[in-house]
Amino acid sequence: MTDRIDRALEELGLSLPEAAAPIAAYVPVVEAGGMLHVSGQLPFHDGQVMTGRLGDNQDLHFGVAAAEACALMLVAQLSKALDGRLERIERIVKLGVFVASAPDFTDQPKVANGASELMVKLFGDAGRHARSAVGVSALPLGAAVEVDAVVKLID
């Protein structure tokens, strides 16, 4: 699967960023009972956090791109936790997508599609997952989007 993901990234013109270090007292990934629980990941572009609030100072297109950037960071964290052996992933089980939103912004599911669609492009059917898409007033470091995940490993 690792080769497939590398090819898919190349075809999409994307590359995995370096896995970000935690900004507080937590670890990026915990393995428990054959599942990986990935802490919330922020969107980075050119080394900077993509900031703002959707429906306020950022638009839907920006939000989708930010969610995709979060998904890339999730995969980078998975790769680091698995020593590059992404073929150990059986299924992306669930994504939690948090969108910094103005009070009247209601397109959180459309923003979350940026992360969801990338998981399917990279992992195929194993990338189809359950999901939450939640609007929040603010996220760490002023990020526009944050995404966490639960991933099942092959036994």
TrEMBL record:
Endoribonuclease L-PSP/chorismate mutase-like domain span: 11-144
Matching InterPro entries: Endoribo_LPSP/chorism_mut-like, RutC-like_sf
SUPFAM superfamilies: YjgF-like (SSF55298)
Highest taxon listed in the record's lineage: Bacteria
Pfam families cross-referenced by the UniProt entry: YjgF_endoribonc (PF14588)
Coiled coil: none
PANTHER family, alphabetized: ENDORIBONUCLEASE L-PSP_CHORISMATE MUTASE-LIKE DOMAIN-CONTAINING PROTEIN, ENDORIBONUCLEASE-RELATED
Protein name: RidA family protein
Source species taxonomy: Bacteria, Pseudomonadati, Pseudomonadota, Alphaproteobacteria, Sphingomonadales
